[in-house]
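Our preliminary data section would be incomplete without showing what the modeling component actually yields. Below, a chain of 368 amino acids is followed by its predicted structure, encoded as tokens that our downstream tools consume directly.
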Amino acid sequence: MYDFQGGRLNFNLDKLVPGEKWNEKLKKLMYYFEEDTQLRDILITGGDGLMSSDQSLKNLLDEIYEMALRKVKRNESLPEGEKLAEFVRVRIGSRLPVYLPQRISLNLVKILKEFKEKALEVGIKQFVIQTHYESPMEVTPESSIAIQRLIAAGWTVTNQLVFTAAASRRGHSAKLRKVLNDIGVLPYYTFTVKGYMENNAGFAPNARVVQEQLEEKLAGQIEEKYDDDIRKFPEEANMMVENIEALRRFAALPFLATDRSVLNLPGVGKSMTFRMIGITRYGRRILEFDHDETRRHSPIIHKLGKVIIIESKSIHEYLMQLEEMGEDREDYNGLYGYSLGQTEHRVSVYDYPEYEFQVTNSMTNLEV
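Predicted structure:
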């Protein structure tokens, strides 16, 4: 997109024409998931997972169901310790509940509800819509109705806040979390904007992400003693508003804090484990990232090494930008002291359900 906007059209459009029909490609994709020994989770995204027509989405969900069913039946003939991981979670990534809530039609909700009812029979237990609210002002009456419909269909709605400069202002995301909790949306990632120069205007330094991460946990941290309660939330997705309200009341929390902060890194995946290793002459920080050690990775991760990121904006530039938005830069001067980050452990609501059998330790699809 950056090259396209700059008029650099030096790519071969003929090579981008699909070489096979979608139905044929879909069969191949499902075969990949069916043969993989460890995958438990499918994310429908794209772009936007709800931009497909109702019929296309139904066809895709039907194929996922059939694939998951074949895997369950195949496991019946495999001994303990050699069984394949079965699918326990299906997610759809979409911002349409925010900017086009009318897309969440009664027919779409019917498709989602019917898929969940039959998918439960093959062991899929978690059904998640991941959306992207950026501001409390986006929680409109129409958007709230869309969320109510998704929850009524038995799907859990979570929010990935993209931490832009505008969204990074003090109190902004805390207000957003509270408003989302009120309509039954669980906070998920705080997603750091990549530091490419084309994202310069929206970029907030990682130091601000770490500062916000620590500050919001003072107000919204979910104590471990509530882990068993919140872990059951997806099983009662249609009661999400009531369950969130009850947890906030019993735990005396104004809002539920975000699961954790992450940055999507090439090859490494999502992580916020970093340390500052240098600074450019323009004040831009140089950060060395490592992978997220709280989750299991394939052995290939240890061959990748560290990832180096040069942020596109100095803290000084960021503070000037906040000042232009009407913020008092003195409230943020402590940012210069945040030079380390650590990926947090997941909140228990995002844990995978446990299997009643032992999965093989072997891994597939590791070729690079």
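The chain has a mean pLDDT of 92. The chain has twelve helices and eleven strands. Preliminary results of this kind motivate Aim 1 of the renewal.
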